[in-house]
Amino acid sequence: MGAAAEAESVDVGGQPAERLRVTLVQTEPILRDPARALALMEHAVAEASAAGAAEDGADAAAGSMGAAGTTGAAGAGAPRILVFPEMFLTGYAIGPADVRRLAEPATGPRFASVARLARVHGCAIAYGYPELGEMPADGGPADQDPADGAPVYNSVNLVSESGELLATYRKTHLYGEVDRSQFAPGERLPELVGWHGWKLGLGICYDVEFPEFVRAQALAGIDLLLVPTANMTGLEAVAGTLVPARAYENQVYVGYANYTGADEVFSYHGLSTLAGPTAEVLAQGGAASASEGYELVTAALRRAQLQASRQVATYLADRRSDLYS
After folding, report:
1. Which residue of the set 28, 86, 161, 191 is catalytic?
2. Parallel, antiparallel, or unpaired for β 19-27 and 80-83?
3. Which of 59, 138, 171, 236 sits CB 3.0–4.6 Å from 204 for a disulfide?
4. One of 104, 205, 209, 295 is an active-site residue; which one?
């Protein structure tokens, strides 16, 4: 998987969790207005956290009833992670000039705002944004603004509930002229992130449509792939067919967070999807966002289901890699 993936992040979160609660935030694009995007993020994170706390309480109550002979949910306080769409902080198809103008380094001021939300609400957050990369080694022309010479990437940050930056991934598979005109391609596959005993992988939109991309991460050991996306109307087969297939053939969970509505170039079909290792769609968004401007698409992922499915669907172990080179 390359140098980045080989240096696996230190596992965070203490004891391995039996369950994770994953929420995909499906929203209309917010164009060229990071402050407004962060305000929507704050509302969505607060709502998801309140819902998660209520569900934790119900699970705890059910677990205590189970001791008296009624089947209940074991354990409470499942770790929570929210996934926002591709280029969420600025909108996706906003043009090369605005992408560069709004780009910032991975740990820039907007990251600090997201980290604060993660700490306040006790949840991890994955979000898309334009990342200002490193300057070329030669520094560029003497009269050039340094930021103008640095590449801009279509990136996703994964932030822990303590506000730590767990990983940054730069989209490697660029889709169409909009992607190629706005961004430089990433050159590394994602790092494997350990979080509460689960192994997390990252992708962005078009990446998940390449079987090799997901398989490489599955072979490295991921349990859950998080995919911010900006998938257009007419390409609903990705959410309906490819996302469940990637989950099944690799025996992982996949969370695919999409937009609805439209920007100045594209319309988006929604259908944000959480798929499990049996190819079951655990939760899926509608074709339009809620009246509040977003829809929360949530499911509890269970380690026991993952382990049981992997005992039956042994694709990774049965591969004939000697025939594929």
Report:
1. 86
2. parallel
3. 171
4. 205
* Residue 199 designated active-site: no
Q: Active-site residue 171, yes or no?
A: yes
Catalytic-role residue among 28, 123, 171, 209: 171
Residue labelled with tokens 């994953």: 22
| pTM, rounded to two decimals | 0.90
Distant-in-sequence, close-in-space partners of 34: CB < 8 Å, separation ≥ 6: 89, 90, 102, 110
Confidence of residue 146 (pLDDT cuts 50, 70, 90): low
Q: How far is CA 91 from CA 33, 37, 148, 154, 247, in A?
A: 8, 9, 20, 11, 27
User: What is the C-alpha to C-alpha distance for residues 180 and 96, in angstroms, rounded to an integer?
Assistant: 9
Q: Which of 258, 276, 295, 312 is nearest to 84 (CA)?
A: 258
Task: List C-alpha distances in Å: 57 to 48, 53, 63, 81, 161.
Answer: 14, 6, 10, 18, 20
CB 20 within 8 A of CB 198: yes
- Neighbour count for residue 15 (Cβ, 10 Å): 7
DSSP state of 221: T
Distance, CA of 140 to chain centre: 34
Please write the tens of the pLDDT for every residue from 219-276.
999 999 999 999 999 999 999 999 999 999 999 999 999 999 999 999 999 999 999 9
Q: Any alpha helices (H) in the chain, and if so which ranges?
A: 3-6, 34-66, 96-102, 109-121, 146-149, 176-182, 211-220, 237, 243-250, 303-312, 315-318
pLDDT tens digits along 63-82: 655 444 333 333 458 999 99
